[in-house]
């Protein structure tokens, strides 16, 4: 009975990542200002969690939640959630390379998830898979080297995909800054915030002042 109750609670919490359309009240940074920064693209589970992790980093200006890795144009949250588009929930990270490097962003990527789980971070399905989208040969080399380096730390194989970046589609407005705007939402409270806090405890030296 206890196992059944735990399973039902987990299912409820995971499903919460698929609900609650709320209005975004955080002011967006103008595109001309963001153009000054480099971009990087990652996926490792629900983008609410991943966005909050990268937002906490010194040197990161902005993080946008969205979709990447599939062929569907202008995908919606419902389409991606159906696991039929090939897209995964991803984030677009705007960062200052004079403050934080792409290699450090990759370190954060691997250090804030379990890279041995297939489509489960902890959410289930291919739209939650672990992916680094590289834009050039240098990024691919860094990503491949990091993957090989951490392999010795796990008994199971690293399943992270390292694939060329093609296109990033911004998610609906209500997904942006979701964890910050909805701290009491059940999924955020039980999954996103604990995941963020585990990351902060692991990498305090990378955090913005006050995080």
UniProtKB/TrEMBL annotation:
Task: Identify the keywords attached in UniProt to this record, alphabetized.
Answer: Oxidoreductase
- What residues make up the catalytic site? 46
Q: Which domain of life is it from?
A: Bacteria
Q: Which residues form the Peptide methionine sulphoxide reductase MsrA domain?
A: 39-187
Against SUPFAM superfamilies, the record matches this protein to: Peptide methionine sulfoxide reductase (SSF55068)
Please state what class of enzyme this protein is: oxidoreductase
InterPro entries, sorted: Met_Sox_Rdtase_MsrA_dom (IPR002569), Met_Sox_Rdtase_MsrA_sf (IPR036509)
What EC number is given for this enzyme?
1.8.4.11
Q: Which GO terms describe its molecular function?
A: L-methionine:thioredoxin-disulfide S-oxidoreductase activity; peptide-methionine (S)-S-oxide reductase activity
Oxidoreductase among keywords: yes
Q: What is the annotated signal peptide range for this record? A: none
Q: Which reaction does it catalyse?
A: [thioredoxin]-disulfide + L-methionine + H2O = L-methionine (S)-S-oxide + [thioredoxin]-dithiol; L-methionyl-[protein] + [thioredoxin]-disulfide + H2O = L-methionyl-(S)-S-oxide-[protein] + [thioredoxin]-dithiol
Q: Which NCBIfam families match?
A: msrA
Family note: Belongs to the MsrA Met sulfoxide reductase family.
Functional summary from the UniProt entry: Has an important function as a repair enzyme for proteins that have been inactivated by oxidation. Catalyzes the reversible oxidation-reduction of methionine sulfoxide in proteins to methionine.
- Please give the name of this protein: Peptide methionine sulfoxide reductase MsrA
UniProt organism field: Arcticibacterium luteifluviistationis
List the taxonomic lineage: Bacteria, Pseudomonadati, Bacteroidota, Cytophagia, Cytophagales
């Amino acid at each position: 009975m206890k196992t059944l109750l735990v399973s039902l609670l987990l299912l409820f919490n995971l499903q919460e990542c698929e609900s609650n359309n709320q209005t975004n009240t955080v002011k967006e940074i103008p595109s001309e200002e963001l153009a000054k920064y480099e971009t990087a693209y990652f996926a490792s589970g629900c983008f609410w969690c991943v966005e909050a992790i990268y937002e906490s980093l010194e040197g990161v200006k902005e993080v946008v939640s969205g979709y990447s890795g599939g062929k569907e144009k202008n995908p919606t949250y419902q389409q991606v959630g159906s696991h039929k588009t090939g897209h995964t929930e991803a984030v677009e990270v705007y960062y200052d390379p004079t403050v934080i490097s792409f290699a450090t962003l990759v370190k954060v990527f691997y250090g804030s998830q379990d890279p041995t789980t297939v489509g489960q971070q902890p959410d289930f399905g291919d739209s939650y898979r672990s992916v680094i989208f590289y834009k050039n040969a240098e990024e691919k080399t860094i990503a491949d080297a990091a993957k090989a380096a951490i392999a010795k730390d796990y008994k199971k194989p690293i399943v992270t995909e390292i694939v060329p970046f093609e296109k990033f589609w911004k998610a609906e407005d209500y997904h942006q800054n979701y964890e910050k705007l909805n701290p009491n939402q059940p999924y955020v409270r039980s999954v996103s915030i604990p995941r963020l806090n585990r990351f902060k405890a692991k990498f305090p030296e990378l955090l913005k002042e006050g995080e």
